[in-house]
Amino acid sequence: MSTSLTEAKIFxxxxxxxxxxxxAASYGIKxxxxxxxxxxxxxxxxxxxxxxxGARLFIIGSTNPGADNLMEMLLMLDxxxxxxxxxxxxxxxxxxxxxxxxxxxPRVPIAAKMIASILETAGATRIIxxxxxxxxxxxxxxxxxxxxxxxxxxxxxxxxxxxxxLTIASPDMGGSKRAYAYSxxxxxxxxxxxxxxxxxxxxxxxxxxxxxxxxxxVLVDDMVDTAGTLTKAADLMIERGAKSVRAICTHPxxxxxxxxxxxxxxxxxxxxxxxxxxxxxxxxxxxxxxxxLFADVMQRVHGNRSISSKFLM
Length: 313
Description:
This is ribose-phosphate diphosphokinase. The protein is an alpha/beta fold. It has helices spanning 17-27, 67-82, 111-122, 151-161, 176-186, 228-239, 258-263, 291-302, and strands at 8-12, 34-38, 44-48, 56-60, 87-92, 126-130, 145-148, 166-170, 189-199, 202-209, 216-224, 244-252, 270-273, 285-288.
């Protein structure tokens, strides 16, 4: 690596500490020292306990709700900017609030755009994230965005299963592009679930477009929240004659009764990354780490090298 490059340092927000330690170990440097002081009313203040002047900083933290995760990232970006760091990269394995990427009815916010602006104002000079809920969110930023795909860690795992009669499925019409990309890599068929919602997180009706009889089905999605869609789709596919149904979801939000739904469903397994730490154990959930992917991309960014080989779809 060129000696003219600024020093690279990696720091972590609180909730992403375990993943950040894995990324730092894979990168080959120690995780930087941050101390967070908390007031009795819940207000907190992160502090870099080492000089960052002139350095390239990678600040790792997923911004899934509640708001504390996003707020901590913003405070750390601001602290880094005021401490004269030269480059400040916000590494957000999961970019939270991304489902609000457009006005789908009158008088609602476009939260993803607002948060993109706030991150840049706070001090981010670059964004690294993975499997955005909608690709166009990249356009909400004025700074460079490296949008990684978890397919680079999921595809090797899928191939290791050596499933015969493999079919890739999308749990909704919006995920069809992702499903077709996986099917192209795996040379498999594709089926699509069509769902109607009464309101957010409540499905009134679901139908299947395609044949799953005698197939080993893999559902592919960017995130799993309540797991209502996934478990309903798995049940429907087993009813329609599928041999097995498993799901790949990049971000394990898993809110509400999601863990119980997964455990009691017809899913053989749910495969996720560690972009968000799991809140509890579940025998059906398998975690595939994205640490090496982020570490490799961060090294390439720091060395001003291409990362196009990390974009499988």
